[in-house]
Amino acid sequence: MHSNSEAQPYSTMRKLDLKSSCNNLLKVSELLICTLMLSLLLTLRVTAVVAAASAGCDSQKCGNLTVSYPFRVSYASEVSSSGCGLPGFQLKCSTNNKSSTGNLTLRTVSGSYQVTAVDASYVVLDATPLKAWTNTSLNISFQVANTSHFLIDTSNILFGYGASVKADFSTDQDGGTHPSCQNVQKNEDTTPYCDYYACCTATNVPLGARTVNMSASTGSGAVGYASIIFPETYSTPGPQFFGGGSWGMRLGWYLQGNCSADGNSTCSANSKCTDFLDWADFKWAAFRCACLQGWQGDGYSNGTGCIGEFDVCY
């Protein structure tokens, strides 16, 4: 009995085997090429990281804070900073090394203040000492220099603490007094800014302020104070400690200049330059650099720059 289908000739089968083998070899070759490309790009990436670190500024440590360009840190035993960064961004560390117990401070016109946080846009200072008390000092001021790279951020608000205390503030931006806040009775419950004692809040600090003057008054002899606080930092130990809370003040930091004139030389590759102020309103311009999405670093050509990830094989 014969089958209806004829057996394939040996030559045809041989061609099929060769074709299959070639396809397999091509797949192996593609895999090898992809692996070699990945290895090469990873080598180039490590080389780029090392080059960026050696050519620019590495991050510095003080206590539990990491400080990146354009900030520079000087340690307790140093007269000036041994690291790199811009002079206008000088910070002081209270230790002689990068131990976890050091405190970082920023010196301003009105004094030196501990830095509790620092990032790519803001610095937060311990502003607890900035209290205008009704029973001692009725007025207190905070000021950064007119040539400073810092501005008092608009997220800070006026804060009055204590029954029957009236709190006021003024800034160098308007020369006048902003709406005050006044406490008339004890709070029945807690709020994000008040504990068991009466307190009040008022308007935010205006844009562009470098000086803020705080004052406290009372007509009944009650004790309390006025201050400026960054609300997210306010905390209190409990009702047994009148006036024992703590808080910070947030400062925005900027480079003086603008993106069109200074961004190309200041911002690194794979970063974005952003203008914040202009000459018409504030008599000076300000900008900052930041890495694009998917890239990591400080965004500055003299810092770590911006380092990205590479996806090669799919």
Architecture overview:
The protein has two domains: 23-55 and 256-314, no CATH class; 103-253, Jelly Rolls, CATH 2.60.120. The longest helix is centred in the N-terminal third of the chain and has 46 residues, at 10-55. 30% of the residues are buried. Strand 1 (60-62) and strand 2 form a beta hairpin. By secondary structure, the protein is of the alpha+beta class. It has three helices and 22 strands. The strands form five sheets. Strands 3, 4, 5, 6, 7, 8, 10, 11, 14, 16 and 17 form an eleven-stranded mixed β-sheet that branches. A four-stranded antiparallel β-sheet has the order 9-15-12-13, with no helix packed on it. A three-stranded antiparallel β-sheet has the order 18-20-19.
Task: Give the strand content.
Answer: 25-35%
- Please report the first level of CATH classification, the CATH class of the largest domain: Mainly Beta
Return the string of H and E elements: HEEEEEEEEEEEEEEEEEEHEHEEE
The averaged pLDDT comes out at 78
| N-end to C-end Cα span | 53 Å
Whole-number tally of structural domains: 2
β-strand number = 22
CATH architecture of the largest domain: Sandwich
Global Rg:
31 Å
Largest sheet: 11 strands, mixed
Q: Which bin fits the share of residues in helices? A: 10-25%
Figure out the total of helices: 3
